[in-house]
Amino acid sequence: MAVFVALGAFLMTLAGGWTAQRVTDRRHLVLGLAGGLMLGVVGLDLLPEALEAAGDEVFGVPAALLLFVAGFLLAHLVERLLAARRAAHGADEHGHRSPEVGLTAAAAMVGHSAMDGVAIGAAFQVGGGMGTAVALAVIAHDFADGFNTYTLTSLYGNARRR
Questions:
Q1: Model's pTM, two decimal places?
Q2: How far apart (Å, rounded) are the C-alpha atoms in residues 52 and 74?
Q3: 4, 39, 5, 28: which is closest to 113 by C-alpha?
Q4: To 10 degrees, what angle do helices 63-89 and 99-126 make?
Q5: DSSP assignment letter at 26
Q6: What band does 97 get if pLDDT is binned at 50, 70 and 90?
Q7: Cβ contacts of residue 144 below 8 Å, gap of 6+?
Q8: C-alpha pair distances (Å), 98 with each of 77, 150, 154
């Protein structure tokens, strides 16, 4: 089973990178669609379910909602710090970009994929059905991971071969 999950994740990531390479001038549309779908799923399905399942409250506010807001603020903070780094190191006065920024972003995607593997393993500890569902969800979203990895690394001047 693990081999099939790994193969599926590999193929979807490869397909995402290949697509990003092919739709150069329309990447923003694909990323906007993916972002909107993700926000819709989170706001209309996952968050209400988490609020219903979570019984703990902190000062009358569901703990799941507080964790959701804390996660969003952490992601926003990291994005702002990377934007500041990009402004400082992304491009010089001649328009040359720093490949190290793109490689750092790609390394973050590797960490993200490692956490996907942890989530799959934890889900299989709960049960076979849960593990299969999480594995399919991770495989499906690996398309976006490949798309983002290619976009980030090529945006910062890394050659395709590298």
A1: 0.64
A2: 24
A3: 5
A4: 160
A5: G
A6: low
A7: 16, 34
A8: 22, 15, 11
Give the model's confidence band at 44: pLDDT under 50 very low, under 70 low, under 90 confident, else very high. Answer: confident
Q: How many angstroms separate the CA atoms of 111 and 117, rounded?
A: 10
Helix axes 2-22, 128-155, angle to 10 degrees: 30
Left if phi > 0, otherwise alpha if psi is -120 to 50, otherwise beta: which for 143?
alpha
Report the amino acid identity of residue 135.
Answer: A
Query: Quick check: 19 and 147 in contact, CB under 8 A?
Result: yes
Residues 62 and 47 sit within 8 Å (Cβ to Cβ): no
Position 73 pLDDT exceeds 90:
yes
Mapped onto helix, strand or coil, the DSSP state of residue 91 is: strand
Looking up tokens 């190290």, which residue turns up? 100
Q: Has residue 99 got a pLDDT over 70? A: no
Instruction: Give the bridge partners for 111, in sequence order.
Output: none
Ranges of beta strands (E only) in the chain are 57-58, 61-62
Q: Enter the tokens of residue 52.
A: 């219903």
Cα dihedral angle (23, 93, 77, 153), rounded to 10 degrees?
30
